[in-house]
Give the backbone structure.
Amino acid sequence: MTALFSDQTVLIVEKNLEELEQLRQILISIGFQKVEVASSVNMAASLLSEVKIDLCFLVYDMGRYEQNGLQVLQQLKAAGKPIFSTCFLLVVDPEKLNLLMGSPELSADGYLAKPYDQLKIRAQLEKQLRIKRCIAQIERFRDEKAWDEALSECERIQKQFPALGVLIFRIKGLIYLEQQQYQKALAVFERIRQAHDKPWVHVALGMTAFVMTDYQRARQEMSQVIEEQQVCQEAYLIMARIHWLSGERSQCVTLLRKSVMLQPTMPVLQGELGNRAAFSEELGVAVDGFRQAVLHSRHTSLQNPEYYFGLVRVIQQMIADKPDRNADFIAEAIRVLESVVHDCMDDPQIRFRARLIAAEIYRQNGEHQNADFAAGDALAQFRKIPLHAQLSVVDLLADGLESTRFAAEAAELKQQVSRLMASVEWGKCNLKGMLSFRQKALEDAFLEFERAWQADPGNPGVGLNLLQTGIESLRRAVGQPQVVNRCAEIVSELHFGALSGKQQQRYQLLSERFGELIKEAEIA
């Protein structure tokens, strides 16, 4: 069996140096010749992005306040890096194992327990590597996003190795989700559940039902997984979004608070908590969520400037509510704004937004000289941004400098830039959409706003236009799952920190209206 191992490159992700060396020596003794090590999740994700690794041992518990081993897979997926060709083994205490089986995709191929036993490790590796070699071509196609080829190979392997039936069906279901063939995915996962009723199957069914806008089914599946205390990001995230879409604001925040108690180093969950709590005006919860999201995503593929800006926007509100702590809050806000500029490589658009908010904070605290300096810098940075990006943030410019000595200059600049909207693809579609909306041609308006959204995804102004048009369309005619799904995406994914004050008010109103429609549909 040494020949099976000798040509494999191994990575061990472990913080405890003694246990790392123990595992390394066992692997060398059974025939592995190339063994790499990483003492943190970030180091491991970086190495896996650059070096072809055949076998990776992920120690789940990396220490208190440290990211867990499974987060390597999350980082790789977020970065769009290959994750399927590598065989991942999670090292975890047996009592925790049953609580880590909820993710359909971001889970390990196999599991090991400490203390290490050489005979058990050899037997487990022989089994896992043989399976991985049987499906190697499928996994290569998945890493290349060659979905049709992967499905064809699944059919071939299924006939050749019937014992791999559940694994192949699982892969097929996930490929159908990637292809947006939701009915086929649902049928595959239903078939698996009949013979293999595991938590990950319920999560897969819930994910599929959610994108098919069957929120009742998604709620049922995810509730079961959460009640079983599964540590599964997808289950908590989708269930929280179902609460939010249905207008159940307090239930959403409560569930997310539970999720981050179980998984405190998950930036996606912490960021979601920050956003939902901020919109619900639970400022203390929001600021903690954003702080943790920034901390655990920094310098990774999950880093998101909106976590920084969300944190600062919440701090702004806290400055008004707790004037006795102004000095501390202002110092933190300025520090966070400096960090986002640094961490985003001094991107002119990020620097513009940071300096614009800094001007607001200084003005809020009566530091008018610093406010004017920051506002002038914001204007200078705005002029460095490409036109398509200027159009995306021009509302922030006008709102941020309103009632200042730069207000007239900002208003004139907004007019100049806005006149060029038709010269960019998303701007042209947005203008057509607004014209159709005024003419009450909702179908045409939705189509144009949809094109604008696809050309510039995440644009807050376009997203709110699309959401408003979708709501009006749904009020006139129910049974439009594509419209519901797009509206749900916008309500779920617009970030608190990306919106100006006026846009936040508009978002609140539209999301409440959409929640009423969802509630009515669930009751019906």
The longest strand covers residues 9-13.
